[in-house]
Amino acid sequence: MASQGDFNRIKRSDLKLVNKQPLGEGGFGSVYHMNLSKGFLRGSVDVAAKKLLRRDVGLHELEMLSGLDHPNIVKLIGVVDEDIEFMLILELCEGGSLRSYLDKGRRLTLKQFYDWLLQSALPLEFLKQKKLLHKDVKSPNYLITADKTLKLGDFGLARNIERTISNASETGSHPWMAPELLTDGKLSPKYDIFALGVVIWELWTGQYPHKGLEWQVIVMKVCNRGERLPIPDDCPEPIKQLIDRCWKTNWKDRPSIEEVISAITTAYPATQHQIMSGPWKLEREFGDQDGPQAGDLYAAKSIAVNPSNGDVAIAGRRRWGTSRVNVYSDHGEFKFSINTEKRPELVKTFHPRQVAISSCHDYMVTDGSGHMKIYDINGKFKDQWESSCSQESRQLFIRLWGLAIDSDGHVLVGDISNNHINTHRQDGTYLDSIKVGIKPRFIAVTSQDTIVIADWNKPPQIVSKTGQIMHTLKYPDNVSLWDPWGVYCHGDMILIGNQRRCYKPILCYSRSGGYLGHIPISDVSFPLAMTPDGKKLMVCEGFKVKVFSL
Ligand code: ADP
Question: Residues 1, 9: contact at Cβ < 8 Å?
Fold first, then answer.
């Protein structure tokens, strides 16, 4: 094997055919599984040999591919250029193409979806830095390795980004083609972004784009009528928006590849699968000092993570009777204590119940009185407002417990004296109220703004914004002691804490009420919270806070 320029020259006689049946066939030749016997430390290596019928086509792909070294691009090992035989020797991707994988009808797990989503976009960022357009981004050209990494292959059409004139008939990939090429025969710098949008759509739906349609029909739909593939409702909202933007008719309105990658990494949550399969590692414990110290925590009632600085706020009783909201840094150092009782107008002592973080990162606290209290990020009292429903029938004495903030930034407050959930703006302006069937002691909202309510010793409920019961959650058969304490929503996933000691302390449900499984941590009970990315889980056991991480 002699090296020449950026690639190696390989002798045909060093290659042995492993399988007569080609791995795949393309427009310009076939790809075979072969074994390359020389020049490798470990003896021989299995490769994919792309036999090209036309040498000029092969030389072009060779020129494009040589020097491209990226984990998500099929690696060029070398070239065979002998007599009439021209072969590109490529890293073997045992899993075949993404298209053939999806054609098997397998729906991707959420984790696999997000992994491949990112891996499909990363090589395009690399190509942009090299001033290259791939020009044939589509699911049949993404290949899967034995360890399930996605790699972009087939650089037969790749071009320098500055070459804008092209010819639609060069490819047979109409479902992936951006309108500028279909109508004017022109490429744009964001030509590949449109195609990537189609690949993302395929990753989510598993389907073949515009299946069964003649190319003329596709052109008419996409270019003349401005139609696009239908994005299913179950597609996560940020991904839906991303696909929409990739499909803008005017290429200038499409996101740059850097924006695509940032949208993907932002949307990339710890998936339901990861949350339930773990492994969750205990990272630290805190709040466990002995004696009447400021940071000493007795029985935690609720816990919230401040996304602006990672601080953890815990509302609870302290050992020596008094109650506080204690705030710790994300490393577990005690920062300050908010005394929610210390207000002159109060004659009665109230324990803080639920704590939530407002849009401007203030701490909002319900404390069993009729007032919501608001403290700034340093614990300084800022404001308070009364929460009550407007109906006449309400009891005079109002006790507030549950607390959540929905996607509009509205505050949902649970009034457990009247079984109402009152909705307010964050400045306290009353908006409306719904009557609910159980005491709204714990409230959380899913990413679709359905409301989850839980109370002690009762099956939790999922209700609509208008208060209609949509689902009542059932205990899984093998959990006999179930006494909810705390609910938390991670996207569409609902986590319910259990105040009874059992081996499944946190149960997980879908937005439609189906039992998904439990979080594999033991001997912790309640309450619970997560960081927004789902990668840290905080649970309290009595006066100890345990932080687990994925
Ligand atoms: P063409 O440029 O002729 O369209 P491709 O490079 O797209 O050819 O390859 C055609 C098919 O061959 C792919 O869809 C895939 O199934 C298979 N193939 C290509 N490269 C590899 C590889 N490195 N490992 C495994 N299979 C491959």
Answer: yes
